[in-house]
Amino acid sequence: MKIKSLFLLIGLFVHVLVLHAQPPRGPIVVSPKVNPDKTVTFSYLAPNATTVLLDGNQFGSANVPMTKSEDGVWSITVGPIKPDIYPYGFKVDGVTVNDPANTYLFPNERFKGSLVEIPADSPAIYALQNVPHGSITYDYYPSVEGSTGTVVVYTPPGYNQETAKKYPVYYLISGTTDTEETFWKVGKVNLILDNMIAQGKAKPMIVVMPYGNPLARIAEQTGKDKPSDVMSRDGEEALKRMKLFEADLITKVIPYIEKNYRTIPNRDNRAIGGFSRGGGQTLRTAFNNIDKFAYVCSYASYISPTEMDKSFTNITSNPTKTNKDFRLLWSGIGTEDFLYKGTTEWEAYLKEKKINVKTYAIPGGHTWMNVKQYLNETLPILFK
What we know:
By secondary structure, this protein is α/β, with parallel strands linked by helices. The chain has helices at 2-21, 182-185, 189-198, 214-221, 236-260, 277-288, 305-311, 313-316, 319-325, 340-352, 368-378, and strands at 33-34, 40-45, 52-56, 61-65, 67-68, 73-78, 84-92, 95-97, 114-118, 135-142, 148-155, 169-173, 206-210, 270-275, 295-299, 328-334, 358-362.
């Protein structure tokens, strides 16, 4: 009996020590909270902070001061906000941080901002709906200069059941500092296609999302410093890196995909598209490899007329052949995009050269809100 009592006392003593060892818990923070009227409440626990600002530039709330409560939680309610998916963060005493209460993050090589989705009254084309869904797969493949590459692959609904069926492929490339995850985690290309396929608006297809910065991956895997960003989009260093990406896509990614997935391996069943830097990579890769792609989609990007005259006379010298080769050459841009002037000048140049280019301009800037609109326009006309 004495031994049992001793063990009980030891157990209680250990329990008390464990309780005292636990750090004090602050209040539970729910953030963001999307309200029925489309306003959003953002909160951040920082009892010792002097200032906390909401940094939500893309929904019109850049560096807005938040209010501190007695329990150390800073909060603000903004809006109503137009339904869409937006990045945001907090500036805590001048330091930018993401929202620790929110696991929905923007995939990026730099600051991984938090994301908030404002739902529409009726389901948006990118919303999760009660339809058959495709699958997302992460793959590793042997890449350039002995490195190992990563690629995200969407396969459409029914891919795993209809094992004899083959599919066309859309190679889709994200922008500067984005990753291979951005087109599905932010662009929602998988849900857009699920919904369009269910509605009979788009053809079932495989979407391959490669990483657009193989030089950074090579540096990481060889213990070198990550290369700095290039300032000029069409300077010598930028073009050199684009050439490396082109080599990776043409000689490594496409052969890997066609070996490991049920594709229709010909140019009429290959499309290539991309946003920003990925759009520049798209255009140069397609124009250098006309035998590989019949569909080309440029989202907020261009090639200058000077570079076209220097490097791509194969496109402009014989417009009849070019118009036959490319079943679709598509260019989309936002009217407030910082690349609007260059893009529209490039589009006018192509039209002057009698090259068929389908153009699309909408309000908005260089944002992933616009990218979803570009996808909405282009996915239904691929492989048709």
